Structures are given as structure tokens and as C-alpha cells.
């Protein structure tokens, strides 16, 4: 399966899961589908041979509310069955409404924003201290960069020369109730990250070639790396795109069918 096919499948499964569970955050899941598709289809970008393989790269989803797209991606890696995945949101299911470490391939439980990067720094430092070659990649939201814990972690990463650490920032400029610019502006984000000693590149977050090139380059950089992905929240479903309403809404039956038709996956 190539990355384009994977992205369509990730979007399809994510839509069906959120509809089935009457859950939230579908737009947040759709905006990172292209990034995840590149990660799970290209072993040069992300080495993920198995959920417990000691040589695996560590993938951390900091924006844990977007977990359906991560769950769908790890299903495509063969880490569990589709039947088990579709227990998502059920009582006693390991597939919880925020990313759960009980799911094979999910490194840490997330949901409280601003935690995964500090943990990722610890993992990256541990790899260096134990002379391991695996990399750490953290997927973050733009809104959670308003959390001070992230900036402390960025200082830590630069101080300890964590060149085995990459963050991917889903810069869709929307958070729970408004735009990030209206809430607490992050701009100029690239300049801020550079000032903290990070190597920074901006890409179209839906262009697979740009994503792949940036992530491959980051693996060989001499600094911790930040890839700013300029994305569209709700990407791929016209009535969800750039609409803050879909941070919390769940599609009804008719909306699900419309969304699936737009993806040409019915």
C-alpha cells in the first residue's frame, strides 16, 4: 500500500470509528492523516517493525484526542485486527477515546496536552545514554504549544544535543473554540523554534513528498528537528475543513455518508 492509499484508508476508518462511537475530534484526526500515512508506509522515515521490537523508532502522539487516526495507522501496520479496532469507545475496550498505551504500538497514553514532548526528550536521552540508534518522533498540535512544558522541553533537547528527536507540528491554526491566532498567537513559530536551538523546516502538511523529504533530512540533522506541517483541519471532507465546530461534533448517518463519498471510498 502506498502512502496515498494509506491516507484514504486512515480517513475512512477514522470517520467510521468516530461515527460509531459518537465521539469527538474527527477534524483533528483528519489533519494528520497524510503525515501518519507517510510514517507507516515508509520504513526509512519511521522504523516500526513491531510494537515491542526494541529497535523500533518511538512514535508519540501528543495530541491524543486525534487517536483514531493513529489507531487506524497502526492497524494498517498489522498490529491488531479491524474487528478489535472497531470496539473503539466501547466499555472496557483498550481503544479509548484518547490515545491509550494499552493499544499495541501506542507508546504512551496522551490527552492532557503538553506531556509527550517532555517524555520524548527523556526517551531520546535514554537512547543516547544506552548507545541505541532508534529515533523519537512526536506529533504535536499547534494549540498545545501554548503549554509552557513544551518550551522547557525544547530547551532541554537543545542543551542535551538530542539530534535523535523530531517533532511534527500540526499547524492547522484551529483549537477547541477558536483559532490559535485569536487564543494565543504562536507566530512567528519558525523563528521561535530556531531561537531555542532547533533545526526547523516548514512544509505542506498534505504533500507526501514534502513530508517524506523533511523527515528523512531530520534524521540526519545535528540538532533536534522541528517540522511545521501547514495543514487544514478536517482535511478531505469539505464541510469539516477549517470549521471549529468539528473539533467536538460527531457526524450523523447522513454526514458520514457524505464524508465517505468525498473520499471516494464507498
Please sum up the structure shown.
With 266 residues, this protein is α/β, with parallel strands linked by helices. The protein has a single domain, classed as Thiamin diphosphate (ThDP)-binding fold, Pyr/PP domains (Rossmann fold), CATH 3.40.50.970.
- The CATH topology comes to Rossmann fold
Q: What count of domains describes the coordinates? A: 1
Name of the CATH architecture:
3-Layer(aba) Sandwich
Q: Name the beta content range.
A: 5-15%
Largest beta sheet: strand ordering: 1-2-3-5-4
List the total number of helices: 11
- Taking all Cα atoms into account, the compactness measure Rg is 17 Å
Tell me the structural class: alpha/beta
Low-confidence stretches: none
The ordered string of helix (H) and strand (E) elements is HHHEHHHEHEHHEHEH
Distance between the termini: 18 Å
Helix fraction? 25-40%
Main sheet summary: 5 strands, parallel
What is the averaged pLDDT score? 96
State the oligomer. single chain
Would you identify the CATH H-level superfamily?
Thiamin diphosphate (ThDP)-binding fold, Pyr/PP domains
Global shape: globular
CATH class: Alpha Beta
Structure summary, number of beta strands: 5
